[in-house]
Amino acid sequence: MNSQRAGRCGLRGSGKWEKGKEGQGTGKRERGRVASVWDVGAAVLVAAVVLAGPAIAQEVPTRLTLDDALRLGREWNPQYRQAVVQADATGADVRAATGAFFPDLRASLGFNGSRSTTSVGEDDFGGAILGQSRTIESSGSSQGLNSSITLFNGLQNFYGLKSSKANSEAARYGVDSEAVTLEAQIKRQFYQVVAALRSIEIEQEILRIRQEDLLTTERLFRVAARDQSDLLGGQATVASQEQQVARALGDYRKALLLLAEAIGFDDAVEFEIDGDFPNAFDPALLDAETLVDYVLRQNPALLQATFNAARADYDASRARGARWPTLSLSGGFTRSASEQGYGGLWNFNPENQYWQAGLNLSWPIFNRFSTSNSIAQAAANQDVQHEQLRQTRLRLEREIRSALIDVDNTHEQLLLAERSAELGLQRVAMTREQYQLGMASFFELQQVVAQSTNDARGALNARLAYTNAVVELERLVGRPVRP
Predict the structure, then answer these.
(1) What is the rounded CA–CA span in Å between residue 466 and residue 416?
(2) Which pLDDT value is given to residue 315?
């Protein structure tokens, strides 16, 4: 029950728990006789984990390693995929902002026809001829090609392009930030499943000890070395431990559900995990100031906030540029033809031609304070983004230093908890021998076993807390920190 065991801890199809040591071959050890509750639970686990619902098209390895979980999470996690899609969309904004420096080009093609009838006709001299009508028919065709370009508009196009590029960089670092957050989330859920498996092992081992102690009590009861209360007490502890095993099974299944949600499995999935807790390392090997400096320079969330602040600066400059005049150049070429009757329709080669070019200057003298409002809103957003950048920097510095403290504290607690668990195991073995020889009471035995159980559970919780502390530190740094 030592929580420092390394290697693999998974469920095999044979229903036996298999543990391996790093650098050694894996070995199997079949546990002692267990109660009916464990038999039913093992039957469920032997069939692997099936989350309710129809089969899905996602391809999942039957033995899911941590690397597999991280890879599938980057493919299927909906929140991460949203960040990727949004970052990809910013490329269109950059292209649109770049296009503002180029002239636009517009082509036109038109055909028209008309027919009008008047109830009063006119003679050749314009006099009215009553009782007669006149019908006039006409048609025409036109083709045009026009273009315009903005030569100067207070550098609004320039700052617009800068803003779009800054927004694109912010979105890219947003994807990186989401990636490290997703990685930390999947790691925490994966190690929670590992802890749940370890918990099942611990509870199963305690159940085996309780059952063996009950057999010893029954044997001693038959020779009048123990009384009826000891026998009933042994039966009660076995029943209570069966409940602990069933509870551990339920926690394991719920942990798998959370892992599947973190990865992004849609419906049903069947898999086993293949992995264990990473080896512990001495936090004294970490250079705190180096990590803090690295975070304040390279953390994706901080870089995202930096580019958001830069974008706000460009937006404010762009808004102020609206006070300047706009100078534009335009030109066009038109061909047209018109004639009486409908002969002018569908004329693709009209003879009349028209060229035009112009240089236009416009200056917004008064637009009902719309420009002033835009400038004020942009300036306010500029201040907000810079304050958010400052807030992010302060938060990250606090979080990285707190994470270093947590790693140090949880490592110390892990060493103490594992030492207590080792001593508890030795004490249990000694007390059980004394109980079999009649040198210890049933009450003393139960107290020692209960304390050892709590120590084993505490060591497992300490291992999980230390692992999660390292995961959180790596999330803030954005890269592995193990020496």
Answers:
(1) 12
(2) 96
Q: What is the mean pLDDT of residues 320-333?
A: 93
What confidence tens digit (pLDDT) does each residue in 106-120 have?
999 998 888 887 765
Task: Name residue, tokens 């901080």.
Answer: 302
Residues 286 and 383 in one domain: yes
Residue 120, pLDDT score = 59
Could you report the per-residue pLDDT of 399-435, keeping only the tens digit for each? 999 999 999 999 999 999 999 999 999 999 999 888 8
Contact yes or no for 11/45 (Cβ under 8 A) = yes
The dihedral of CA 300, 277, 188, 289: what is its sign? negative
Say if CB 65 and CB 259 are below 8 A apart: no
> What totals of helices (H) and strands (E) does the chain contain, helices first?
9, 12
Contacts of 300 (CB under 8 A, 6+ apart): 173, 174, 176, 177, 179, 180, 478
User: Would you say 314 and 165 are in contact if contact means Cβ atoms under 8 Å apart?
Assistant: no
Residue located via tokens 């995990």: 273
Contact at 8 Å (CB) between 63 and 134? no
Q: What is the CATH number of the domain that holds 378?
A: 1.20.1600.10
Residue type, 261: E
What would the two tokens of residue 132 be? 């007669």
Q: What is the mean pLDDT of residues 350-378?
A: 90
- Domain of residue 126 covers 107-152+328-362
